[in-house]
From TrEMBL, chains A, B, C, D:
Protein name listed in UniProt: Dehydrogenase
Pfam families referenced in this protein's UniProt entry, alphabetically: GFO_IDH_MocA, GFO_IDH_MocA_C3
Keyword Oxidoreductase found: yes
Source species of the chain: Mangrovihabitans endophyticus
Key words, A-Z: Oxidoreductase
Gene Ontology MF, one: nucleotide binding
Organism superkingdom: Bacteria
Start and end residues of each GFO/IDH/MocA-like oxidoreductase domain: 144-289
Domain (Gfo/Idh/MocA-like oxidoreductase N-terminal): residue spans on this chain: 6-128
Cited InterPro entries: Gfo/Idh/MocA-like_OxRdtase_N (IPR000683), Gfo/Idh/MocA_oxidrdct_glycsds (IPR050463), GFO_IDH_MocA-like_dom (IPR055170), NAD(P)-bd_dom_sf (IPR036291)
């Protein structure tokens, strides 16, 4: 039976955890007004000041420092998990076992094996929602693009070019963190590439082939932090000691999809000047659509309308005619603008609706979807071409 | 004594009223976490379904259909007024007399005389906040621009070019509403020009001279609506009957400021393709800054750094280094994005802080400021040049 | 009888003169291949090295230092005049009297009286072409826009917003020149505003009313140059002595047109970061078109095609479907790009075609057109509002 | 001994041939004014009307229909070859044997073996220039970027993302031509990818590894033309008969460079809405530079100047401070604009200077460079991953 109201909690009060906390606070205001508002119960972080600040700020009743206190709490029914990847499995499995609904951040886990265990736990709890947070599916503009391609008016995708460029790792003085630990594929590929792989499959169908994977680590050692950092932001005192970075700063690869589309992907966490540039260019049978996260509330489309000397690439500002905006923003005319934090609100609303059986938003991808995503990431990593690999084609071109 | 918690209400549950309601709901989450969250008490609209929907959606305890019920309610301490302009005076004066803090939408009133009465009422209630909602002052990018000009690194403004182009009136089938009633100056000048005049004075100082005002009404008659429309959105059944539009669709004028800057302004509510394009180009002694509301989270700046072959116009995405963003958005890195609804949240926080004596945000402009704005609008209207006016310079150029 | 080949000359070998010289050299290659190529006869400049360099560079047979040598030469049939404005009258009148075809740069002359004398001279030489160089009419994108508005698919113009921002005068160390001499209206209004006034009339019809003119001079004194400068470029030694600037750095005004359109104009020669930004936004009955010279080979258009969730502002790259490009550029596909120098080539071709009676390009505007333009500039200047003027509306808004 | 003047000829009078013809006509006007202007001798095309039109248009003395007439002409000293790739070898070898200087279009030849023969012919004629036309190296903006990276202020490249998207093949009704014939790699990879591979090596150094190559052909059959088409433009009558397309519409691959940079490349000739979009994003140690051919006269740069709240991505309009512009355009201020046709002029000037031993432009890449380029293309083709290839990594992700 759906609890009423749903008691929600967030584990992790870093930058992403705050986005989840805010999302629950705002979720009641969006879409179907008769959806029961959740009760904001608890937010947890090992660093108590973060938990306390987020709890006060977003109106949660309790701040906790141990995630188990959240998982065990009888007044908590649904939990967002926004902590380091290597904790996802333990918390998710425990939460599901405790009867909670779970929305776990991406990538689902450090390894396929971990994710398999999580999926198994979800299967053992069939009445509970086990979801993974592919938040960009809640972007109104990307969702509008998804309507255009494939079965939409532009027809099947022929080629997708996906670039995701961040600069959080550009400065070698940014402190060591869990994001820089793990083997190949656990770096920029897992962190932001997981989103890109998911979006590409949304638009193109299942990945059938990957190749040409090249990974490089440019900043090979980073200073140990002497305190706790939130997000990527630094601002923390640094040790003179440096620790090795285990995973990739840059990753590029190509893909093939079941329906014949091909993909080109470039990922970087050291892209100076690009705080968070997710770009999609999607070439279809009857036109082209593009998206750039730096202008989150718009997309461009080129097709044959009108097919004459005023044909061009149209910049479309999303509004009530597009997904999520009507009822999702108080003022909702085109160009009113929104940001990534709003994506989390729409996602929270969808997650709560799934639990309550209300609403008509697309459900959150389930844990098996998150596992599938990890398997594609693993295949990309396995297709790696480096000095030691046999798959790269050396180019000898001296004349 | 500041009530704790502050009981808030919104009068008007149209598009702008909803933005206020959402803003109070979210205001507790932004900035100083120890600021007491407000109690969301009541939202009123003559059209009951609007009031009820907004109350449920944003978590207000009561929906009312008579604004007097709000003004009279002892558990309401602060009121946002977001209704047709010709009701501003009556409600504001009553609310102030009832001991409430007031945040009234712009333009403050239909006439200077109305606004003078409101200012008088505010002077008679010195312990209460009487504020006007110039929301664009809460734009992080515009506030960042304000830091650059005048006393900032770019120095005094030489020239400001302000364009505010909307398309809400472009379609002649959009129904008649209060926005299309009133004499010259009550149309696009009052509706969106009031914002532009305010922003220009923020950046350039007091207006000293206006001239060349030209106003035209292109859509001279509009169909009577048969129901209630929210915002500009139409979607309402229309009568076959048409009513005359009283005020201007387009308004353009030039200005001079006390410190020598000059201004060029173009306003339109029939600008096809421009849902809400507010553009500022501000030319200063040592550089130029520009803003375009269609990309609300960025601005451009050109100055002499670096002064060589890589000098150019920089696109700056606002982030924690700029006003409002840090603590105002859960994820707050540059390019995370935000929209106009967020401006209302920042404004609500500032209004509540003023009442509570907390925080360090700039206070809301007071009612006298709103009166001043109306006086500038009146001067612009008085400088009108049309067929009947003596001030225009006819151009006879036949050879 | 049309001479064959037409002997052409250029008077003035500064930056604009070079553009004319290059244009004649290239004109044979564009459009109707059977148009006779001109003979490149002479180029004159008081500063001999400029004349000699341009003659060598663009393949003219003679370099002269006295314009009279050009006007008197029997092998010269057509002359471009690209010198300081105060020489336009004398040279044009002499050239027409000597039986030459004349293409004179804009603005036609320093005063209306001068221009009237030039028009009279042209009337006395009815078999010769007397033309004025409104080069932006040869922009493929602007010409494409002209096809859309008025009688075109977008219908009559309602509002035109014209901004022309340069930075050639921003640096107070740039030397004094003829551009900074003359009374009000001879500064930025004459120099670049003349283009804007012309383009606006092309799109909107005759100017009927001007108002609100505000002119300011920010850089009031400039250093005397110790040598000869080409274009705006400086690079010349400067005296310690400074001379007063006589005319305006900034000019803004509003207009009304015969058919009801209104105009808003902002001109500046001290606009940091804008080397040469000519922007037009043209709002019509059925859509909006815009142009920005910094991207010279494109324009944007918004209309109702397609009228649904993919409607937006289209960026159109000019190509063979648009004016001038097909046959005007060797490779001529959309996005191949071109620049302002190409406008001069197209203009030269049109001027030569007029002389030869060939081709189907629009003819160059005649001298009477240039006179009309000056009369509008004079009316704009007369509508000036400053401390001494009675027409400005002072704004007294103290509460 | 350098002939004076140099007699020049162009073989091929299609769109690219015309660009070469125009370039020779204009080359005398750019840069060192004392460089001897060439004599425009002959232009050849098997389709006589093309040859005749181009000869008349650009002022060449003779139109020929047999390339041998050009190669054998004693008054021709330098030849541009702009015909179908499979003729490059024969003409180049013959021209070199006849003592001519040769500028051959890219890609140098259909096969590495062909190109080796051409290089051998060039080695046998050491006193003659044998060059390949990588025209984009003459882009002022790309050349400006090249100054910034590597040994420039931004330091070594870490990652290059190269997209080259055209739409000339999008319409299945466009006629069959030589561009659609040849095996894998002879399609979009050879046609436009050759440019991209060359630019990437210019910025990053020699390619050391390629991988992940995926090629697809979307339009598999095209109608036979019934006449002669120029460029990609169609406009020719079509047969009902269709012929198979032999080569790829889309090609994507990744690269590694000797100095550690990695590359991501996406090429398409069926990219709706992109007439000719060549985009480069170059991520370096100390900043990022980007270029987009649709705005050919600008580039963007992000670095740490100034490193504070006004840091951003700068849009730099090329001008006299950048390569090629000063002396290369008559009016040469920033934002004056230019297009791809100008690149050919700069290239022609460089080629003539090489022959004459004048000037200081970078020389044209030689035939060995063109051979190297082909070898990289061959390696990319060899790294192909398709249904039949063993190198692709299949992704099996079913749960």
């Amino acid at each position: 039976m759906t609890p009423d109201p749903i008691g929600v909690a967030v584990i992790g009060a870093g930058m992403v955890g705050r986005a989840h906390a805010n999302a629950y606070r705002c979720a009641a205001g969006v879409y179907a007004a008769d959806t029961p508002p959740p009760r904001l119960v608890a937010i947890a972080d090992v660093y108590e000041p973060f938990a306390a600040d987020a709890a006060r700020r977003y109106g949660f009743r309790r701040a906790e420092t141990d995630w188990r206190a959240v998982v065990d709490a009888p007044d908590v029914h649904a939990i967002s998990i926004a902590v380091a990847n290597d904790l996802h499995r333990e918390i998710t499995v425990a939460a599901l076992a405790a009867g909670k609904h779970v929305l776990c951040e991406k990538p689902l886990a450090p390894t396929v094996a971990d994710a398999e265990a999580m999926v198994a736990a979800a299967r053992a709890a069939p009445g509970q929602v086990g979801a993974v947070g592919f938040t960009f599916r809640r972007s109104p503009a990307i969702a509008a693009i998804a309507r255009q391609v494939g079965a939409g008016p532009l027809g099947p995708v022929r080629h997708i070019v996906g670039n995701y460029w961040c600069d959080y790792g550009h400065d070698p003085q940014r402190p060591m963190s869990w994001r820089y630990r793990g083997g190949p594929g656990s770096g920029v590929l897992a962190d932001i590439g997981s989103h890109m792989v998911d979006l590409a499959e949304w638009l193109c169908g299942p990945t059938r082939r990957v190749g040409g994977t090249t990974m490089t680590t440019v900043v090979t050692r980073r200073p140990k932090p002497l305190g706790v950092a939130v997000g990527h932001a630094g601002g923390v005192a640094l040790s003179n000691e440096r620790e090795p970075v285990d995973n990739e700063d840059i990753c590029t690869f190509t893909t093939g999809y079941a329906d014949g589309a091909v993909g080109t992907f470039a990922l970087s966490r050291i892209a100076y000047g690009h705080a968070n540039s997710l770009r999609l260019d999607v070439f279809c049978e009857r036109g082209t659509v593009s998206f750039d996260l730096t202008r989150p509330a718009e997309f461009t489309i080129a097709d044959d309308a009108p097919d004459d000397d005023v044909n061009g690439i149209r910049t479309v500002f999303v509004g009530p005619a597009h997904p999520y905006v009507h009822g999702g923003l108080p003022m909702d005319f085109p160009t009113v603008g929104h940001g990534q934090n709003d994506f989390f609100v729409f996602q929270a609303r969808a997650f709560l609706d799934q639990i309550a059986g209300t609403g008509d938003l697309p459900p959150c991808p389930d844990l098996a979807h998150g596992l599938h995503n990890l398997r594609v990431l693993a295949a990309i990593t396995a297709a790696r071409q480096d000095a030691a690999a046999a798959t790269g084609s050396p180019v000898a071109t001296t004349t």
